[in-house]
Structures are given as structure tokens and as C-alpha cells.
Amino acid sequence: MLRLEARPTPSRTMTLAAPLLALALTILTGALLFAGLGHAPGPALYHFFIGPLSDRYGLAELGVKAAPLVLIALGLSLGFRAGIWNIGAEGQLIAGAICGGGFALAVYPAEGPWVLPLMLFAAAAGGMAWAALPALLRVWRNTNEILTSLMLVYVASLLLRLLMNGVLRDPDGFSFPESRLLPDGTLLPIILAETRLHLGAILALAAALAVWVLARHTLVGFQIKVAGLAPNAARYAGFNHNRLIWLTFMISGGLAGLAGVGEVAGPMGQLVPEVSPGYGFTAIIVAFLGRLHPAGIVLAGLVVALSYLGGENAQINAGLPLAVTGVFQGLLLFFLLACDVLIQYRPRLNGPRWRNKR
Amino acid sequence: MTALLTLHETTKSYGQVCANDRVSLTLNAGEVHALLGENGAGKSTLVKTICGLVQPDSGTMTWRGEPTALPGPAAARALGIGVVFQHFSLFEALTVTENIALGLDDGHANTDLTERIERLSSRYGLTLNAKAIVGDLSVGERQRVEIVRALMQDPALLVLDEPTSVLTPQEVEALAATLRQLADEGRGILYISHKLSEIRHLCDRVTVLRGGKVVAEADPKTTSPEALAELMVGQRLPQPKRASSLSPNAPVRLVIDHLSQAPNPFSPTGLHNVSLSVQAGEVLGIAGVAGNGQNALLAALSGEVLAGSAGTIILDQQPIGHIHPQGRRTRGLAYVPPERLGTGAVPELDLTDNALLSTYRRLAFAVRGLLQPGKVAHFASNVVERFDVRSAGISARASSLSGGNLQKFIVGREILQTPKLLVAAHPTWGVDAGAAAAIHQALLDLATEGACIIIVSEDLDELLMLTDRIAVLCDGRLSAPIPVTEADATTLGMLMAGEPVDAAA
After folding, report:
1. Does B44 sit within 8 Å of A236, measured CB to CB?
2. pLDDT (tens digit, 9 = 90+) per residue, A168-206?
3. Gyration radius (Cα) of chain A, Å
4. Residues B297, B364: one domain?
5. Contact flag A356-B48 (C-beta cutoff 8 Å)
6. Do the chains contact at A236 and B304, CB–CB below 8 Å?
7. Beta strands A2-6 and B452-456: pairing type?
8. Helix (H, G, I), strand (E, B) or coil at B82
9. Residue A4: beta bridge partners?
10. Are residues B28 and B92 in the same domain?
């Protein structure tokens, strides 16, 4: 019989190996799934994992998808490290898209060089404002931020729909629930010619560096670490927990808001009701897959971005349902959480019985 | 005298660690046998072996001369071995009778059982109301429930694991009488402790364990406490000494003025009008049975819970009752919390990061929010060096240190901030004797330099040895401090139990 035995110290190897193991198990399960659906696993997996990366455009698309995931996951990772659970990044992303996109539409048809910076600013402020609600409720009334932040996602989503059918609808758009196309001067500059890869990718990398400095070299980063590892020690040291709640919610909300306007002023070019394919939720997977570490998050963001591209590619070339994307993301998180057990425990076959602690 | 249980060269290892190394032990009927040893000497493993919870890797056992094995707790019970563990296993919502019925193989909580319990408890002087709800009982009473539960099986051998760590001196006295009576009836008693005075007072024979091995067997009545301590620790320990005595005219540094705190889940007793003043250079002890307001007092002093008004706590003429922990630290407070791992230190972080935990404001380890890793590392090395913290270096995780070494690190971290007031909770709880002596000496040295020190401890011996005055917390109320020269275990015990003492008024 297989048993789990507690390790004396957490395994460093497994901390790094668990995500890779989870990835391998996901691919294996995916192959079985494809076979079960009546598709040859080999070609299906090729279309899912390799096909999207076979040309320059595909590689650029990977960056387009990874940028919002990385931006959001970086913010979330700070809160998760401190044991503060912002699950509503999707709502903060939508709020950012509304504010950033709304600003551009409000000053339409202005497209001077001052518009884009103000759009980014408005988007970050919008994301922060949306994140401020659960933070305030947590600090003021000790509500569970997991529930409030999650529920506010649906409020934001419905608000966007309302605006798309109302004031932000394109007046010349035949009543389609979409905004005008934004003027070219208000869009994020393309950084790789003839692709859609935009400034957001660079923004994400810069954010990764900033988060790394914050987590590693500042007092606040230290406080976040201690609050998550040992809340009693944080109280003993006199850290202000409410301040940490505000700080992590503001950073994660602001970055999610930026990710939102990145879609509007990036690949979309306009405000639409479905501004994000669930980036805010998928970023939670990215944050954990990346071990809550900035460098890990950048890598994990690329892997998970591939699952979006792979899903589309497999649908087009192999006739697989698009739902495969969600299945793969779910499998990946599931296997990651399962493999994380190996950090604290080691599997044993038929060894001695459970050991008594001395 | 007949031998009940004999262990012959039993060995038990956990991975690389040999917890019991060829331990031989004979427990006789009618004898109170002490097992003495420091934390980690292998006492618990030996007890678990005797009550069938742990199977030794090698060695043999006999019971009344017959070879035997104890594959499980049921087998030990069937032979007649009863155990009272250090940590109680009682259901607080149930009555005494119901709790005892749960421990019996065919137990029903009926009037018959209630009568049996009351007969048994009065016979051994273990005053107990069998119909009381366990949640309403004091710690001493709960222990009596555990002992009566063990006695219901009419054991030939009764094992008590650190039974007095939670008792007042009077309760210890009552327990001693009960144990004597049980031994006189021909039962064997195994008494596990690290308190030398009790063992000398109570036991007929003592086996000393050190590093998993039996290092001596002795008659405690004729062996001096110093000799027993030396056997237990393996070396001669210096007695902590004070360089100069407290001057009566030293200025008052700390004043607590009518500090009250409503009962809360953190401290069910709260605090009621606690007042106190401590002089520069004074060491003041706060005694009391655990759970009588110690947590509330510590939280109020450290700033984790703020006082109602600023003037309730005054340090060097400055009111600090309204100031948060870091603000108090910059004004000269240092604090050794009751829990080491998880509060005083973060287990997963290394010693450098843990050195930062309480010091960053007072020692300015963060400049405009940026950490100064070089300075912190230097400070951490200093602590490790000055306080002889045995570790793999300042990058060792806190969880990899032994309890004593981690406590030395925490005490050192607080003392090297040159505080004006040091509050230390259970500074040597669960710490080996060598480290305890070093910590005691460091505390006294700090007092000599003019700081005032408050030690909250349940260990009366420690307080009597270190302090100038002792006050007692009971039910959230603090007694007037008694000069240590006038304090004795009887007076303090009565205060701890909440009984009025004329002399202390």
C-alpha cells in the first residue's frame, strides 16, 4: 500500500519539481481524454501544445495572452503570501476596462499622447476602487474577503453589460452591444511588427521586477511574508495587519485594472461585453503554478497562455471543443495541488507503520 | 519487594535519533520510582513504551517475572498499567462521571458509577464532585479526574507524566499524600518529572536519563539536588549571580495604574485593576497558575492589546498605554513571548529574518522602507555569538534549532536592543538546564545595567531564584508584590489558589 510519510523538512527539490510533475500529469490525462473523445492523442496534443508555437505570430500571441495573466498573478501573489485572498481579480479587471476604456470614449475622438497615460491611470484607479470594497469590508466588519471579492466579479460583469447596452454603446453600431473602435492614438503601441504583441508585455515584465524588489528588499515585503507564515509572529512584531490588507488589495486591484485596459487598448481595440476570457480567475492558477514567485509567475503565465492558444488551435485544426482549454487549466491546478503534497510528505511503499512522534 | 515491570535493554530509534538506548529499568510494587531527565532525554519515549504506544526496536520486558510484550495500550491496561498523561484528554462539556465512563470498557454513566467514583475519590483524598461538568473544574481538579479514571481499573502500576507542572504547591502536597497512600497499598508508581525538589520529597528511587541512556540510579533522599542536577545535565552548572544588589533608591521606571481588560477569548479571565510599579534594576516576578490572566497582562504590556487610556502604563514618566507594539519598542520595551515557534520566531525563516522581527524600528533596520540586509546579518551574528546559539549559522531556519537554542536566540535578540523594560514570559520553559542557566544570567546582567525586568512564569523555583519581588496573578487580579526574602512556597501557593493571605495585604 502507498502511504505518505512526513518529511523532516520541506523538500526544496519538490518545491520546484511539483509544477513540472503536474504539467506532465496534465498532458498525460489530456492524452487519455483525447483518446476517449475519439481523437488520436498524438496529433491532438501536437495541435494543442506545439502547433500554436510554430510561427512568429503564434509566439507573439503567447505574449498577448500571457501579459494580463502575469500582471494579475503578480498582484495576487503578494496577497496570497500574506494569507489575504483576493479571488475577485476578474471583477477588478472589468472595472479597469470600464474606467480606462470609458475615459477614452469620454474624450473621443481625442487621441493625443496624453490620452493613453490617463487611460492607464484611470484603469488602475478603477481596479483599485473595485478592490477597495472587499478590503474595506474586511477591515471594517471582518467579512470574508474570499466571498465578497468573488461576488463583486458578477456585479462588475453585469455593470459592464449594462453600460454596453447603454451609454457606452457605439451610436453608429446598429444596436450591437459594443463600443466605438478606439482611435489609433489611444491604443497600446505594438512592440513586434505585424503581430498584436503590445506594450502590455513589457509592462508585465516591469511589474515582475517591481514585485520582486518589493517582496525581497522592503520592509513591507518582509511583513507580507511573516503575516502569511506566522500570523502570531506578525502580531508580536507589531505589524499592522489592516494596512497589509489595504496594500495587497490595492496592488492586486490596480494591476488587474491595468490588465483590463490592456485588453481594451490592445487586442480588442474597443470595449466589448466579454472583455476577458476569465483571465482574473486563471491568474490564480498562474500565481500558484509560479510558486508565488515573480520569475515563476512569468514562466507559468506563458504555460497557461499556451492553454488558451492550444484550445483555439485544437478546435480549428483537430475539431476539438473549445472547452478543452478550461479542462486543461482545471487539470493543471488540480494536479499542482495534489503534487504539492510531495513537498511536505514523501510516498512510501509498505514501509514501517505511521511513526509516533517522540 | 516484588518487581512489577522490568525493562531490559530496550532501544527505540526514530530515524537517526536514538531516543532510548539500551534502557533497563525495574519498577517495584510499593515504590514511588522517579524518572528524571531533561526535555529530549527520552522520558516520553520510555513512558510510551511502558503503556504500549511505542514498540521498542529491541530489548525485552517482563511483568511480575514473566516475559511479556505490549503490542498496544489495551495490552498494557489488561496487565494493570494505568497512565495519567501530561495533557488531559477530557471532554469539557461532559460530567466527571461521563468522562470516566468513556474510558471504561463496559462503562455506563449511571448512579452506580457515580457512587463508585465518589467512594474511590474520598478514599484517596481526591476531592471530586462526580456530577460536575469538567469545563467548570480547575486544572488541579481535572487532573484528579484523570487519576481517578486510571484508578478505576485498579492498576498495579500507575504512571504519571509530569503531573505537577500545572499545580499550585498545595495541590502538589495533596498529590504527594495520595501517591504515598497508593504505594503503601502495594502499587508501583512511576513518576516522571524534571523538578528535583519534588523528586527528593516524594520518591523512593530515581532513575536519571540523559541522551536516551540511563546514566544513574540513585536514592533521592540521600543524593543532593546539586548531584542530581549534575547527573541530569551531565555537567556542573554555574548558579546565576547578580553583580550588584538592587538599590532601594533606584528610580521607578514602569508604572501600571489600574489596568483592566474585559474577558475575551484570548484571556477568559481578563484583568481587574492591576497596579504595579517596578524600579530600575529590579527583577519582578509574576507567579500564577496558567490561565489566570497572564496572556491578558502580556498583551497589555507588549501593546498587542491597547489599554483604555494612555496613562494606564507609564514607562520612564511617558504614558505608553495607547501606543502600538513598535512604538513601545522604540521607547525601550523588549518582549520575550510565551510561544517560541510561531510567535517569537517564524519557523520557516532563517535567523537573519527572525532577528529583524522585533528590531527593525528600534535598531533602524529599514531605511525609507528598504531593508538593510548587511546590518541585520551583523546583528544576527552578534546574537548568535554573544548568546552561544548553537546553529548551522545565521542562515539556519528557526525550526532547525533546539528549543533551548532558539530561546537563547530570542532572549538575546531582545536583550541586545538594550531595552529599558524587558517582559519575559516563561523564559526557560522547556529549555535544557544549560541554556536555562545562560538565560537566567543574561536576565540578571540586564537588570544590573539598570533595566527593569518582569518575568511571568509558572515555575516558582525560577522566580524565587531570580527576582527581587513576586506578585501573584489569580483570576485576573494581581496581588501586592512580596519581597522575595519573605516569600515562600506556602504563601505564594495560597495566593495562586486565590485564598487571602494576611501578610501579603
Report:
1. no
2. 999 888 888 999 999 999 999 999 988 999 999 999 999
3. 22
4. no
5. yes
6. yes
7. unpaired
8. strand
9. A347
10. yes
Quick one: what percent of chain A has pLDDT higher than 90?
A: 70
Cα separation of the two ends of chain B: 51
At residue A356, does pLDDT exceed 60? Answer: no
Q: Domain count of chain B?
A: 3
Residues in chain B closer than 8 A to A240 (CB atoms): 324
Domain A40-319, second-level architecture: Orthogonal Bundle (1.10)
pLDDT exceeds cutoff 70 at B505: no
For position B124, what pLDDT does the model report? 85
Cβ of A233 within 8 Å of Cβ of B54? The answer is no
**Helices A56-81 and A200-217: angle between axes, nearest 10 degrees:** 30
- Using a CB–CB cut-off of 8 Å, the residues of A that contact B are 8-9, 217-220, 222, 225-226, 229-230, 232-233, 235-238, 240, 355-356, 358
- Give dist(CA B139, CA B146) in Å, integer: 11
- Other C-beta atoms lying within 10 Å of the C-beta of residue A214: 18
Q: Which three cell numbers stand for residue B108?
A: 455506563
Other C-beta atoms closer than 10 Å to the C-beta of A110 total: 12
The C-alpha torsion from A151 through A155 and A157 to A161, rounded to 10°, is: 160
Q: Is residue B72 included in any domain, yes or no?
A: yes
The answer to whether A236 contacts B349, with C-beta atoms less than 8 Å apart, is no
Residues from chain A contacting residue B399 (CB–CB below 8 Å): 9
Contact A218 B302 (CB under 8 A): no
pLDDT digit string, tens, across residues B415-469: 999 999 999 998 987 777 788 888 999 999 999 999 999 999 888 888 998 999 9
The pLDDT, as a whole number, for residue A350 is 57
Judge contact between A7 and A342, C-beta under 8 A. Answer: no
Neighbours of B24 (CB within 10 A): 14
CA distance B392 to B406: 12
- Specify whether B218 is located in the same domain as B251: no
Residues B424 and B413 in one domain: no
With CB atoms and an 8 Å threshold, state whether B304 touches A355. no
> A238 and B15: CB-CB below 8 Å?
no
Q: Say how many CB pairs under 8 Å bridge A and B.
A: 77
Preferred mutation among A219, A247, A353 to probe B, highest tally of B CBs within 10 A: A219
Kindly state the average pLDDT of the residues A30-49: 89
pLDDT at B500 over 80: no
Residue of chain A whose alpha carbon sits nearest to that of B357: A237
| CATH code of B189's domain | 3.40.50.300
Domain end among B233, B257, B283: B233
Task: Look over chain A and give the mean of its residue pLDDT values, rounded to a whole number.
Answer: 91
Distance from CA of B270 to the nearest CA of A (A): 19
Is B221 a residue whose pLDDT tops 50? yes
Q: Which residues of B touch A9 (CB under 8 A)?
A: 397, 399-400
Contact B353 A222 (CB under 8 A): yes
Q: Which residue of A230, A237, A240 is in closest CB contact with B342?
A: A230
Q: What is the 3-state secondary structure (H, E, C) of B249-279?
A: CCCEEEEEEEEEECCECCECCCEEEEEEEEE
Residues B192 and B310 in one domain: no
Based on the fold, state whether residues B223 and B254 are members of the same structural domain: no
Do the domain assignments include residue B479? yes
Give me the mean pLDDT over the B73-84 stretch: 88
Contact A237 B358 (CB under 8 A): yes
Nearest by CB to A218, which of B14, B357, B370?
Answer: B370
Residues B50 and B130 in one domain: yes
Contacts of A103 (CB under 8 A, 6+ apart): A115, A118, A119, A122
Same domain, B22 and B121: yes
What is the reported pLDDT for B501?
A: 64
Domain extent, residue B268, equals 243-332+420-505
Question: What does the domain layout of chain A look like in residue ranges?
Answer: 40-319
